[in-house]
Specification:
- By secondary structure, this protein is α+β, with helices and mostly antiparallel strands.
- The protein has two domains: about 190 residues, no CATH class; about 180 residues, no CATH class.
- It is built from 13 helices and 14 strands.
- The strands form two sheets. Strands 1, 2, 3, 4, 5, 6, 7, 8, 9, 12, 13 and 14 form a twelve-stranded mixed β-sheet that branches. The chain has a two-stranded antiparallel ribbon with strand order 10-11.
- A hairpin with a 2-residue loop joins strand 10 and strand 11.
- Helix 2 packs antiparallel against helix 9.
- The two termini are about 30 Å apart.
Length: about 425
């Protein structure tokens, strides 16, 4: 049995080589469909992996009070559905003083600028540094860890100490080979002593998380005095089972601060980090569907092309089939030969499509700074699809070849 199978495979390869151009075109058609599938799925997987790693650090036990919900702020006509007021400093201060719930800690912060210039001795950065005013709970609530130094403490914030925590890019950039801890930097003429360096977080959607400076919130307010600053409130709950109660209490507290009547809707949003992840994943699911639709249409066309090439091959080799049957070859042997040709062509297209798809996914990940992951699931699906295409496209031509009458085949010109 095995020698016969080996011989059929050899004959199949010889036949493929004899019709090289036609085979290459068919392989390319199959490869295009598989490339679309693997390429899009691998790019989407890289996007999902990046989002998960970026937001997972915040944990499922943290929620935020913000100006809007994560849902869209516009109607289908393009008109804004509702304009919520910004969260002011008075409101975040009142919330921190009024909100009392077991096992919770409240972080308040705001972004002073995204175009600051940081100076150290005679060196300075490009004006692209983000400066955030924060309180002592910001690092813990945001899931940020220190690579070196210490966090802000209660006295740093209450006494408005001129201290700062820097992103990891500063250690290798502004300070070069020097230890940044206890060094003095200058932002808009105000000097700060560096007390900590954050661990690297990379960048998300072009936003560099490692090129930022954290300073006490009151000092930041004295430096950055632009009007209508929107503040952020983050609440971390020690026990996840208390999350629902903590959120309800936070909503009631903030409604009281804004003096909303029981009949008025919330004019602010509340959300957890995993809510945002789920919303983004629901969007990426549409990309997955699009990948399947594109690939199925293309693969359907390639299966027709593959069946066509095999039918033409059966017709062209009618005399060969007759000679083999006259020499004692069984119909199953003839069918196996043509089926093996179809399977080989299908797998060549599948392998080429998988390689091209991975390269596309890798290129998209590198360009968008996503965390690329090997798309094993997409590769397994692609392999299975190419086998299915080969089975469907090769069954009829193989059956037709096996049923040919040897006498008529020998007379075929």
């Amino acid at each position: 049995m095995f020698p016969l199978l080996k011989e059929n495979i050899r004959i199949a390869f010889d036949s493929i080589k004899s019709q090289l151009l036609r085979t290459i075109l068919t392989v390319l058609i199959i490869a295009i469909g598989i490339t679309a599938l693997v390429g899009i799925l691998s790019a989407v997987s890289a996007l999902e992996n990046t989002i998960s790693s970026d937001f997972a650090s915040m944990g499922a036990n943290t929620f935020n009070l913000q100006q809007y919900e994560f849902s869209t702020q516009r109607r289908g006509s393009g008109e804004r559905e509702k304009i919520n007021p910004i969260i002011s400093y008075r409101e975040v201060r009142d919330f921190k003083e009024s909100y009392v719930y077991p096992q919770t800690q409240t972080s308040i912060s705001f972004t002073g600028t995204g175009t600051a210039e940081v100076k150290f001795e005679n060196d300075k950065t490009d004006p692209e540094v983000s400066v955030l005013g924060v309180n002592e709970f910001f690092l813990s609530n945001s899931g940020l860890d220190l690579e070196n130094g210490r966090e802000f403490n209660y006295f740093d914030i209450q006494n408005n100490n001129n201290v700062a925590i820097l992103g990891s890019d500063f250690a290798n950039g502004l300070f070069k080979d020097k230890n940044p801890i206890d060094k003095t930097i200058s932002i808009r003429g105000v000097k700060f002593r560096v007390i900590g360096i954050l661990e690297s977080k990379g960048s998300t959607f072009g936003n560099n998380q490692d090129l930022r400076v954290l300073i006490p919130i009151e000092l930041a307010r004295s430096i950055f005095t632009q009007p209508n600053i929107n503040y952020n409130i983050s609440v971390k709950v020690g026990d996840k089972q208390l999350m629902e109660g903590a959120q309800s209490e936070a909503i009631i507290t903030f409604r009281n601060i804004r003096k909303l009547t029981p009949l008025e809707e919330n004019d602010f949003g509340i959300g957890k980090s995993d809510d945002l992840i789920n919303r983004i994943f629901s969007i990426t699911s549409y990309l997955n569907i699009a990948a399947w639709i594109i690939s199925i249409i293309t693969i359907f066309g390639s299966s027709i092309a593959l069946m066509n090439i095999m039918l033409v091959s059966v017709t062209e080799r009618t005399r060969e089939i007759g000679i083999r049957k006259a020499l004692g070859a069984k119909g199953s042997t003839i069918a196996t030969q043509f089926f093996m040709e179809t399977l080989i062509i299908g797998q060549l297209g599948g392998i080429l499509g998988i390689l091209l798809g991975i390269l596309i996914g890798l290129g998209v990940s590198a360009a968008a700074d996503f965390d690329f992951v090997t798309p094993w699931k997409a590769m397994f699906w692609a392999t299975g699809i190419t086998i299915l295409v080969a089975v469907l496209a090769g069954s009829y031509p193989a059956s037709k070849a096996a049923k040919q009458d040897p006498v008529e085949s020998l007379h075929y010109e």
